[in-house]
Amino acid sequence: MTQKEAMARFMAAKEKKRQCVEQLEEKMKKAYEQRTGKPANYTFVL
Description:
Layout: H1 3-36
């Protein structure tokens, strides 16, 4: 594997993680709002 291939693979994984985190945050915000009736001020995802 060349450095260019490795970097492309890394960047693809990074983008996929960003998308998954974005979806998770939306689900968490909706669940919080349904549970409490208040909008979420922030979320924390590792």
